[in-house]
Amino acid sequence: MKKYKIYLYTAISFLAFYVILSLVFIPSISKQSMSFLLENEIKSGKQKAKQIAFLTEEALKNSDKKEVSKAIQKAIEDVENETLFISIVDWSGNIISYPDITQVGLKNTKEGTLVSNIKQTISGEELYSFIKNYKLEGNQPFTSEIIHLNPIPNSDWIVTVHINIKNTFSKLNTFKSGLYTTFIILGLLILVFLLTLLRFVSSYYQSIIEEKSIRIEDGVLNLSKLNASLESYQKSVTSLAEAKTEVEQRISEKEDDIKEAPKKRLLTYIRNELMPVAIEDISYIYVENTITYIVRNDGKRYTANDSLDQIYSSLDSKLFFRANRQIIVSIYAIDKVIKYGNSSLKIETKPKSEIDIVIGKNKASTFKQWLDL
To answer: Which terminal CB of the chain, N or C, has fewer other CB atoms within 10 Å?
Structure first.
Protein backbone atom coordinates (compact mmCIF):
# COMPACT_ATOMS: atom_id res chain seq x y z
CA MET A 1 0.00 0.00 0.00
CA LYS A 2 2.88 2.34 0.81
CA LYS A 3 4.39 1.78 -2.66
CA TYR A 4 1.15 2.83 -4.36
CA LYS A 5 1.08 5.98 -2.24
CA ILE A 6 4.62 6.83 -3.33
CA TYR A 7 3.67 6.32 -6.99
CA LEU A 8 0.50 8.40 -6.53
CA TYR A 9 2.30 11.28 -4.79
CA THR A 10 5.06 11.20 -7.40
CA ALA A 11 2.54 11.29 -10.26
CA ILE A 12 0.55 14.14 -8.69
CA SER A 13 3.70 16.18 -7.97
CA PHE A 14 5.05 15.66 -11.48
CA LEU A 15 1.73 16.49 -13.15
CA ALA A 16 1.33 19.66 -11.07
CA PHE A 17 4.87 20.75 -11.96
CA TYR A 18 4.39 19.84 -15.63
CA VAL A 19 1.07 21.71 -15.90
CA ILE A 20 2.63 24.84 -14.40
CA LEU A 21 5.61 24.45 -16.75
CA SER A 22 3.26 24.06 -19.73
CA LEU A 23 1.19 27.11 -18.81
CA VAL A 24 4.36 29.18 -18.54
CA PHE A 25 6.24 27.98 -21.62
CA ILE A 26 3.60 26.94 -24.19
CA PRO A 27 2.32 30.50 -24.82
CA SER A 28 5.92 31.69 -25.22
CA ILE A 29 6.84 28.81 -27.55
CA SER A 30 3.62 29.31 -29.49
CA LYS A 31 4.30 33.02 -29.92
CA GLN A 32 7.89 32.54 -31.03
CA SER A 33 7.04 29.73 -33.45
CA MET A 34 4.02 31.43 -35.03
CA SER A 35 5.86 34.75 -35.25
CA PHE A 36 8.63 32.96 -37.13
CA LEU A 37 6.14 31.26 -39.48
CA LEU A 38 4.28 34.53 -40.11
CA GLU A 39 7.58 36.29 -40.73
CA ASN A 40 8.29 33.73 -43.46
CA GLU A 41 4.80 34.30 -44.90
CA ILE A 42 5.44 38.05 -44.97
CA LYS A 43 8.78 37.52 -46.73
CA SER A 44 7.08 35.23 -49.25
CA GLY A 45 4.34 37.84 -49.86
CA LYS A 46 6.90 40.60 -50.31
CA GLN A 47 8.75 38.46 -52.85
CA LYS A 48 5.53 37.79 -54.81
CA ALA A 49 4.61 41.48 -54.72
CA LYS A 50 8.04 42.48 -55.98
CA GLN A 51 7.84 40.02 -58.86
CA ILE A 52 4.32 41.10 -59.86
CA ALA A 53 5.34 44.77 -59.65
CA PHE A 54 8.29 44.12 -61.96
CA LEU A 55 6.22 42.08 -64.44
CA THR A 56 3.40 44.63 -64.38
CA GLU A 57 5.86 47.48 -65.02
CA GLU A 58 7.22 45.66 -68.06
CA ALA A 59 3.73 44.79 -69.32
CA LEU A 60 2.53 48.41 -69.03
CA LYS A 61 5.35 49.49 -71.33
CA ASN A 62 3.89 47.47 -74.22
CA SER A 63 0.16 47.20 -73.40
CA ASP A 64 -2.60 49.40 -72.08
CA LYS A 65 -3.79 49.21 -68.49
CA LYS A 66 -7.04 47.40 -69.29
CA GLU A 67 -5.27 44.47 -70.94
CA VAL A 68 -2.73 44.27 -68.12
CA SER A 69 -5.42 44.46 -65.40
CA LYS A 70 -7.39 41.67 -67.14
CA ALA A 71 -4.30 39.46 -67.28
CA ILE A 72 -3.55 40.09 -63.61
CA GLN A 73 -7.19 39.48 -62.69
CA LYS A 74 -7.15 36.15 -64.51
CA ALA A 75 -3.93 35.15 -62.67
CA ILE A 76 -5.14 35.97 -59.15
CA GLU A 77 -8.85 35.12 -59.43
CA ASP A 78 -10.45 32.88 -56.75
CA VAL A 79 -7.37 32.62 -54.48
CA GLU A 80 -8.73 34.67 -51.60
CA ASN A 81 -9.09 31.53 -49.47
CA GLU A 82 -5.33 30.99 -49.50
CA THR A 83 -3.25 32.30 -46.60
CA LEU A 84 -1.71 35.03 -48.76
CA PHE A 85 -3.12 36.61 -51.91
CA ILE A 86 -2.38 39.64 -54.12
CA SER A 87 -4.51 42.57 -55.30
CA ILE A 88 -3.84 45.74 -57.32
CA VAL A 89 -5.15 49.19 -56.33
CA ASP A 90 -4.42 52.69 -57.58
CA TRP A 91 -3.25 55.60 -55.49
CA SER A 92 -6.83 56.80 -54.99
CA GLY A 93 -7.83 53.46 -53.47
CA ASN A 94 -9.77 52.05 -56.41
CA ILE A 95 -9.42 48.26 -56.75
CA ILE A 96 -7.89 47.33 -60.13
CA SER A 97 -7.59 43.54 -59.65
CA TYR A 98 -8.83 41.37 -56.80
CA PRO A 99 -9.37 37.59 -56.33
CA ASP A 100 -13.07 38.26 -55.84
CA ILE A 101 -14.01 39.84 -59.20
CA THR A 102 -17.05 41.52 -57.65
CA GLN A 103 -14.68 43.84 -55.74
CA VAL A 104 -13.02 45.13 -58.93
CA GLY A 105 -13.84 48.78 -59.57
CA LEU A 106 -14.88 49.43 -55.99
CA LYS A 107 -13.03 51.78 -53.71
CA ASN A 108 -11.07 50.29 -50.83
CA THR A 109 -12.72 52.05 -47.89
CA LYS A 110 -11.52 49.57 -45.24
CA GLU A 111 -10.14 51.30 -42.17
CA GLY A 112 -7.68 50.10 -39.60
CA THR A 113 -5.36 48.19 -41.91
CA LEU A 114 -2.05 47.02 -40.52
CA VAL A 115 0.05 49.05 -42.96
CA SER A 116 -0.11 52.60 -44.21
CA ASN A 117 1.59 54.77 -46.79
CA ILE A 118 4.26 55.48 -44.21
CA LYS A 119 4.81 51.89 -43.05
CA GLN A 120 4.69 49.54 -46.02
CA THR A 121 5.22 46.23 -44.14
CA ILE A 122 4.90 44.74 -40.65
CA SER A 123 6.83 42.18 -38.60
CA GLY A 124 5.78 38.60 -37.81
CA GLU A 125 5.44 39.41 -34.11
CA GLU A 126 3.15 42.37 -34.83
CA LEU A 127 1.03 40.22 -37.14
CA TYR A 128 0.80 37.45 -34.51
CA SER A 129 -0.42 39.90 -31.85
CA PHE A 130 -2.95 41.34 -34.28
CA ILE A 131 -4.37 37.93 -35.29
CA LYS A 132 -4.42 36.69 -31.70
CA ASN A 133 -6.54 39.65 -30.56
CA TYR A 134 -8.68 39.80 -33.72
CA LYS A 135 -12.42 39.20 -33.26
CA LEU A 136 -13.70 37.08 -36.11
CA GLU A 137 -17.30 37.30 -37.24
CA GLY A 138 -18.63 33.84 -38.05
CA ASN A 139 -20.89 35.00 -40.94
CA GLN A 140 -18.01 36.38 -43.01
CA PRO A 141 -16.73 34.04 -45.77
CA PHE A 142 -13.21 35.35 -45.13
CA THR A 143 -11.53 38.33 -43.52
CA SER A 144 -8.26 39.77 -44.75
CA GLU A 145 -5.77 42.47 -43.85
CA ILE A 146 -3.11 44.19 -45.93
CA ILE A 147 0.37 43.33 -44.66
CA HIS A 148 2.56 44.83 -47.42
CA LEU A 149 2.43 47.55 -50.09
CA ASN A 150 4.67 47.57 -53.17
CA PRO A 151 4.24 50.53 -55.58
CA ILE A 152 4.63 49.69 -59.30
CA PRO A 153 7.24 52.03 -60.80
CA ASN A 154 6.16 54.45 -63.53
CA SER A 155 2.45 53.94 -62.72
CA ASP A 156 -0.19 54.91 -60.20
CA TRP A 157 -0.78 51.28 -59.26
CA ILE A 158 0.18 49.54 -55.98
CA VAL A 159 0.59 45.81 -55.37
CA THR A 160 -1.02 44.93 -52.03
CA VAL A 161 -0.36 41.70 -50.15
CA HIS A 162 -3.31 40.44 -48.10
CA ILE A 163 -3.36 37.80 -45.39
CA ASN A 164 -6.47 35.69 -44.83
CA ILE A 165 -7.16 36.26 -41.10
CA LYS A 166 -9.66 33.41 -40.78
CA ASN A 167 -7.32 30.95 -42.45
CA THR A 168 -4.34 32.12 -40.40
CA PHE A 169 -6.39 32.10 -37.19
CA SER A 170 -7.36 28.49 -37.90
CA LYS A 171 -3.70 27.58 -38.47
CA LEU A 172 -2.78 29.27 -35.21
CA ASN A 173 -5.37 27.26 -33.28
CA THR A 174 -4.28 24.04 -35.01
CA PHE A 175 -0.67 24.77 -34.12
CA LYS A 176 -1.58 25.43 -30.48
CA SER A 177 -3.64 22.25 -30.32
CA GLY A 178 -0.75 20.27 -31.77
CA LEU A 179 1.65 21.90 -29.31
CA TYR A 180 -0.57 21.03 -26.34
CA THR A 181 -1.03 17.49 -27.64
CA THR A 182 2.74 17.11 -28.01
CA PHE A 183 3.27 18.40 -24.46
CA ILE A 184 0.65 16.00 -23.09
CA ILE A 185 2.14 12.97 -24.89
CA LEU A 186 5.66 13.99 -23.85
CA GLY A 187 4.50 14.49 -20.25
CA LEU A 188 2.87 11.05 -20.16
CA LEU A 189 6.00 9.43 -21.57
CA ILE A 190 8.18 11.19 -19.01
CA LEU A 191 5.76 10.19 -16.23
CA VAL A 192 5.80 6.53 -17.31
CA PHE A 193 9.60 6.62 -17.45
CA LEU A 194 9.77 8.29 -14.04
CA LEU A 195 7.43 5.74 -12.43
CA THR A 196 9.33 2.87 -14.07
CA LEU A 197 12.63 4.27 -12.78
CA LEU A 198 11.09 4.77 -9.32
CA ARG A 199 9.84 1.18 -9.33
CA PHE A 200 13.26 -0.13 -10.35
CA VAL A 201 15.09 1.93 -7.70
CA SER A 202 12.59 1.06 -4.95
CA SER A 203 12.77 -2.65 -5.86
CA TYR A 204 16.56 -2.52 -5.76
CA TYR A 205 16.65 -0.88 -2.31
CA GLN A 206 13.83 -3.14 -1.10
CA SER A 207 15.93 -6.20 -1.95
CA ILE A 208 18.88 -4.69 -0.05
CA ILE A 209 16.66 -3.98 2.97
CA GLU A 210 15.25 -7.52 2.88
CA GLU A 211 18.76 -8.98 2.81
CA LYS A 212 19.76 -6.84 5.78
CA SER A 213 16.59 -7.87 7.62
CA ILE A 214 17.41 -11.54 7.04
CA ARG A 215 20.92 -10.99 8.37
CA ILE A 216 19.58 -9.16 11.41
CA GLU A 217 17.04 -11.93 12.06
CA ASP A 218 19.79 -14.55 11.78
CA GLY A 219 21.96 -12.51 14.13
CA VAL A 220 19.14 -12.15 16.66
CA LEU A 221 18.43 -15.89 16.46
CA ASN A 222 22.10 -16.73 16.98
CA LEU A 223 22.31 -14.31 19.90
CA SER A 224 19.21 -15.85 21.45
CA LYS A 225 20.81 -19.27 21.17
CA LEU A 226 24.03 -17.87 22.59
CA ASN A 227 22.31 -16.31 25.60
CA ALA A 228 20.27 -19.48 26.17
CA SER A 229 23.46 -21.52 26.10
CA LEU A 230 25.06 -19.05 28.49
CA GLU A 231 22.21 -19.43 30.95
CA SER A 232 22.34 -23.21 30.63
CA TYR A 233 26.08 -23.21 31.09
CA GLN A 234 25.85 -21.00 34.16
CA LYS A 235 23.32 -23.36 35.70
CA SER A 236 25.45 -26.38 34.91
CA VAL A 237 28.50 -24.70 36.40
CA THR A 238 26.54 -23.84 39.54
CA SER A 239 25.20 -27.38 39.89
CA LEU A 240 28.72 -28.73 39.53
CA ALA A 241 30.18 -26.38 42.09
CA GLU A 242 30.15 -29.01 44.84
CA ALA A 243 31.58 -31.63 42.53
CA LYS A 244 34.28 -29.17 41.51
CA THR A 245 35.14 -28.49 45.13
CA GLU A 246 35.45 -32.19 45.79
CA VAL A 247 37.65 -32.61 42.73
CA GLU A 248 39.79 -29.70 43.80
CA GLN A 249 40.24 -31.29 47.21
CA ARG A 250 41.33 -34.54 45.59
CA ILE A 251 43.68 -32.65 43.32
CA SER A 252 45.20 -30.85 46.30
CA GLU A 253 45.72 -34.21 47.99
CA LYS A 254 47.53 -35.52 44.95
CA GLU A 255 49.73 -32.52 44.18
CA ASP A 256 52.60 -34.85 43.45
CA ASP A 257 50.67 -36.47 40.58
CA ILE A 258 49.56 -33.28 38.85
CA LYS A 259 51.46 -30.19 37.82
CA GLU A 260 49.27 -27.39 39.24
CA ALA A 261 45.61 -26.97 40.30
CA PRO A 262 43.58 -23.78 39.67
CA LYS A 263 43.94 -21.22 42.44
CA LYS A 264 41.13 -20.73 44.94
CA ARG A 265 42.06 -17.10 45.63
CA LEU A 266 44.23 -14.31 44.27
CA LEU A 267 46.43 -11.98 46.28
CA THR A 268 45.56 -8.31 45.72
CA TYR A 269 46.38 -4.98 47.24
CA ILE A 270 44.36 -2.10 48.64
CA ARG A 271 46.87 0.69 48.98
CA ASN A 272 49.69 -1.12 50.83
CA GLU A 273 47.48 -3.77 52.42
CA LEU A 274 47.63 -7.33 51.11
CA MET A 275 44.12 -8.72 50.50
CA PRO A 276 43.23 -12.25 49.24
CA VAL A 277 40.13 -12.43 46.98
CA ALA A 278 38.26 -15.72 46.51
CA ILE A 279 38.01 -16.90 42.90
CA GLU A 280 34.20 -17.26 43.09
CA ASP A 281 33.95 -13.59 44.17
CA ILE A 282 35.77 -12.29 41.07
CA SER A 283 33.62 -10.73 38.32
CA TYR A 284 36.32 -9.75 35.83
CA ILE A 285 40.02 -8.86 35.63
CA TYR A 286 41.42 -6.22 33.30
CA VAL A 287 44.56 -4.22 32.55
CA GLU A 288 44.63 -0.45 32.21
CA ASN A 289 47.76 1.67 31.87
CA THR A 290 49.91 -1.42 32.67
CA ILE A 291 48.06 -1.88 36.01
CA THR A 292 46.10 -5.09 36.62
CA TYR A 293 42.71 -4.58 38.31
CA ILE A 294 40.55 -7.28 39.88
CA VAL A 295 36.85 -6.42 40.26
CA ARG A 296 34.67 -8.38 42.68
CA ASN A 297 30.96 -9.20 42.32
CA ASP A 298 30.12 -6.37 44.73
CA GLY A 299 31.92 -3.85 42.51
CA LYS A 300 34.99 -3.37 44.70
CA ARG A 301 38.24 -3.02 42.78
CA TYR A 302 41.71 -4.26 43.77
CA THR A 303 45.12 -4.23 42.12
CA ALA A 304 47.50 -7.14 41.50
CA ASN A 305 51.20 -7.41 40.75
CA ASP A 306 50.86 -10.30 38.31
CA SER A 307 50.26 -9.81 34.59
CA LEU A 308 47.03 -10.83 32.92
CA ASP A 309 48.76 -13.82 31.30
CA GLN A 310 50.08 -15.04 34.67
CA ILE A 311 46.69 -14.69 36.34
CA TYR A 312 44.81 -16.42 33.48
CA SER A 313 47.19 -19.39 33.54
CA SER A 314 46.31 -19.96 37.20
CA LEU A 315 42.51 -19.73 36.75
CA ASP A 316 39.99 -22.46 35.92
CA SER A 317 39.36 -22.20 32.16
CA LYS A 318 35.80 -23.46 32.68
CA LEU A 319 34.98 -20.48 34.89
CA PHE A 320 37.01 -17.71 33.21
CA PHE A 321 37.37 -16.66 29.56
CA ARG A 322 40.06 -14.42 28.05
CA ALA A 323 37.85 -12.10 26.01
CA ASN A 324 40.77 -10.14 24.59
CA ARG A 325 44.26 -8.98 25.49
CA GLN A 326 42.85 -6.52 28.02
CA ILE A 327 40.25 -8.43 30.02
CA ILE A 328 39.30 -11.80 31.57
CA VAL A 329 35.62 -12.35 32.43
CA SER A 330 33.99 -14.82 34.86
CA ILE A 331 31.13 -17.06 33.76
CA TYR A 332 29.13 -15.93 36.78
CA ALA A 333 29.49 -12.25 35.88
CA ILE A 334 28.13 -12.54 32.32
CA ASP A 335 24.64 -11.05 32.15
CA LYS A 336 24.03 -10.82 28.40
CA VAL A 337 25.77 -11.35 25.07
CA ILE A 338 24.83 -9.03 22.19
CA LYS A 339 25.92 -8.64 18.58
CA TYR A 340 28.60 -6.02 18.02
CA GLY A 341 29.46 -4.97 14.46
CA ASN A 342 29.44 -7.57 11.68
CA SER A 343 30.98 -10.61 13.39
CA SER A 344 32.01 -9.49 16.88
CA LEU A 345 30.24 -10.01 20.22
CA LYS A 346 29.85 -7.74 23.23
CA ILE A 347 29.48 -8.99 26.82
CA GLU A 348 27.47 -7.16 29.49
CA THR A 349 28.36 -8.05 33.08
CA LYS A 350 27.05 -7.68 36.60
CA PRO A 351 28.36 -5.42 37.99
CA LYS A 352 28.68 -3.34 34.85
CA SER A 353 32.19 -3.30 33.44
CA GLU A 354 34.11 -0.03 33.41
CA ILE A 355 35.39 -0.85 29.94
CA ASP A 356 33.69 -2.44 26.93
CA ILE A 357 34.15 -6.20 26.80
CA VAL A 358 34.31 -7.00 23.08
CA ILE A 359 35.11 -10.43 21.65
CA GLY A 360 36.58 -10.11 18.16
CA LYS A 361 35.43 -12.24 15.24
CA ASN A 362 38.57 -14.40 15.57
CA LYS A 363 37.61 -15.39 19.12
CA ALA A 364 33.82 -15.51 18.68
CA SER A 365 33.81 -19.19 17.67
CA THR A 366 36.09 -20.07 20.62
CA PHE A 367 33.73 -18.23 22.97
CA LYS A 368 30.75 -20.21 21.59
CA GLN A 369 32.65 -23.47 22.08
CA TRP A 370 33.48 -22.34 25.64
CA LEU A 371 29.74 -21.99 26.23
CA ASP A 372 29.34 -25.50 24.77
CA LEU A 373 27.40 -24.39 21.69
So the answer is: N
CA 135 and chain centroid, separation: 47
CA 81/CA 57 separation, integer angstroms? 27
Q: CA-CA distance, 325 to 308, in Å (whole number)?
A: 8
Question: pLDDT tens, 137-176?
Answer: 555 555 778 888 889 888 889 998 888 888 887 888 888 8
Taking the chain, what is the end-to-end CA distance rounded to the nearest angstrom? 43
Q: 3-class DSSP state for residue 263? A: coil
For 337-362, write each residue's pLDDT tens digit: 888 877 888 999 988 888 889 998 88
DSSP 96: E
Q: Give the pLDDT confidence of 16-35 residue by residue, as tens digits.
A: 888 888 888 888 888 888 88
Task: Give the pLDDT band (50/70/90) at residue 256.
Answer: very low
DSSP bridge partners of 304? 292
Q: At what angle do helices 2-62 and 65-76 cross, to 10 degrees?
A: 160
Separation in Å, CA 269 to CA 31, 135, 312, 372: 96, 109, 18, 35
Task: Detail the DSSP E strand segments found in 91-237.
Answer: 95-97, 144-151, 157-164
Residue 248 pLDDT more than 80?
no
Axis crossing angle, helix 165-239 with helix 124-132, rounded to the nearest 10 = 90
How far, in Å, CA of 226 to CA of 223, rounded?
5
pTM of the complete model:
0.47
Buried b (16+ CB within 10 A) or exposed e, 300-310: eebebebebee
Burial of 106 (0-12, 13-18, 19+ CB in 10 A): exposed
